[in-house]
Amino acid sequence: MRHHQLLTPLLAACLLSLSATANIRLPALIADHMVLQQQASVALWGWADPGEAVTVTPSWSNKPVRVVADEQGKWLVRVPTGRAGGPYELSLVGKNRLSVRNVLLGEVWLCAGQSNMVFPISKRPNSGSYSGVVNEAEVLPQANYPAIRMFTVKNQVADTPQPNAEGSWVACSPQTAGEFSAVAYFFAQEIHERTKLPIGLVNSSWGGTPAESWTRREVLEQDADFRPILARYQRGLETYEQDLAAYHSKRQEYQQERAANPGLRRSAPREPIGATSNKSPYKNYNAMIHPLVPFTLRGVIWYQGENNAERAYQYRRLFPALIASWREEWQQPKLPFYFVQIAPHRSQNPEIREAQLLTMLAVPQTGMAVITDAGDSTDIHPRNKQVVGHRLAQWALAKEYGEKKRPYSGPLYESLRVQNGQAHLQFSHAHGGLVARGGPLREFTIAGPDSIFHPAQAKIEGNQVVVWSKEVPQPVAVRFAWQHVPYPNFYNGAGLPASPFRTDTWRTPTQGKL
C-alpha cells in the first residue's frame, strides 16, 4: 500500500497552526458546487483567528448568522435551510471575505465502505479489479445530471482524528460520471428521477478495508470483544519488518507458481498490516470520516464486510457498534443506514451475510439490499452495480421519500413450525406472493436432532415455504442459501430476492474468533 498517505501528528499540528493564523478558512467539504441538506439546520464550520467574529449569510434566506471563533480558532454555526433548490451562495465575512458559490439544497448521503463502494462506472487504467459496470457504454452518455454531485474523499490514514479531508465537489456529467462510485451513482440517479431533488453524495470508501478501520478507536478500546483487534494490530507492528520480509519471499514463490500453473487456486499471501496500512484499526475513521462530522446528512449507504468474513461472528457486534458510533458522532440518533449484503463469492462465507441480516433485524432505521442474484463466484467485484443501487434506493424511497407502498425488501424468514415431518416456514415481505423463478425452489437444506443438513425439497404454499427430506424424518432446522456461492431462486412478487438465513443457532466456524 504505497498510494496513500499517513497524516502525522506533526502535519495535523501544522494544519491547526495554519487555521489559527489565517483569516476565515473552510474545510474542503464546504466549497463551491456543494449540496446542503434541505429543510434542516445544517452545520457550517471552519477556522479563523481566535476571538474573530464570523458572519455567515446564505442567499436562500439572506439572514446572517454570527459566531465568534474559540481559543483554538474553531467556529461552527447552524443555518436553517429551506426547500430544495438553487443555485445559492454563502457569504462569509470576518477579517476577510469568502463566497461559496453554486450551492444546491437537496438530499445528502454519505457513501462508505470498501472496494465495491469504490467501484467506478468506468474501468480504471491498469486495474483489473475496477473493470467498470456492465452497461458503461449505455450509462455514461446519459449521465447528464448536474443536480447530482459527488465529493470523493482522498484515501488517507491517520493516527489521530483529523480536522480536514481532501476532496472536491463534482457535478455529474457524461465527462465526469466515469469516476463516480457506481453504486452511489445508481442510488442517486433513481432517487433524483423519482423525486427531482438535488442529491449530494459524499464518497468515503477504500478497497480492502475492514470495519474496524472505519470505527473510532474509543469504541474498540471500550469493548472486550473488540480489544483483541487492537492487541493483534499492536503485535503486528512489533514484528512488521520480519513479517514484511517473509511476505515478499512468499509472494515471489506464489507468483512463480502462478506463472507455471495459471489455474492455481490457492490464495495469494497476505501483506502484513503496518502503521500506514488502510487495514489498520481506526485510522481510516480518523482521516476519512471524522473530518466529515458534523456535515448534515440525510442518511448513509454502506457496502462493506468482505474483509470481515474471517471473523463474521464478531461482525454481528462490530457492525452495529460502528453504526451507533457514527450516529453519536453526527448527533443524529435516527440517521438512516442502508447497506448491501455481501454477494456470493468463493471467499465469502454465509456467516457474514447472516451478521448483516441480524444487524438489520436488530438495529432501528437500517435496511439491507440483498444481491444473491448479482454476484460472481470468481470476481469479488461483480459488475452489475445498477441492481445494487436500485435495491438500496427502494429502501430510501419507501422509508425517506414517502413511497410507503413501495416494496423494499425480499422475503425475510420469521418462524418455523414442524408438522408431519415437514418444516413450515413463515415469511414477511411477501409482496405479491412468494415466487420460485425458473423451476422448483433451490438452496434449501434441512436437519434433524443430529445437526446434519441434507438437501431438501421445498414448495411454496401461500406465504409459507414447506421444506422436507426423506433423509430427515424429524426436522428441527432449515437453512437457505447457506454456502459461499449459493444459486437461489426465491423471490417475492416484487422481484426482490430472499435473504439467506438459518433457523438454528448452532455453533458456526467463526464463532469465538476475535
Would you write up a description of this structure?
- This is Sialate O-acetylesterase domain-containing protein.
- The chain has helices spanning 9-21, 115-118, 136-139, 182-195, 217-221, 227-238, 240-260, 283-289, 312-330, 350-362, 386-399, and strands at residues 5-7, 35-37, 41-47, 53-58, 65-68, 74-80, 85-93, 97-113, 145-152, 156-158, 169-172, 199-205, 299-303, 337-340, 366-369, 412-419, 422-428, 434-436, 444-447, 453-455, 457-461, 464-468, 477-480, 490-492, 501-502.
- With 514 residues, it is α/β, with parallel strands linked by helices.
- Among the domains are: 5-108 and 146-194, Immunoglobulins (Immunoglobulin-like); 217-278; 412-502, no CATH class.
- Strands 2, 4, 5, 7, 8, 9, 11, 12, 13, 14 and 15 form an 11-stranded mixed beta sheet that branches. A 4-stranded antiparallel beta sheet has the order 16-17-22-21, with no helix packed on it. Strands 20-19-23-25 form a 4-stranded antiparallel beta sheet.
- A hairpin with a 6-residue loop joins β4 and β5.
- The longest helix has 21 residues, at 240-260.
- The two termini are 25 Å apart.
- Mean pLDDT is 94; it is low at 1-5 and 9-21.
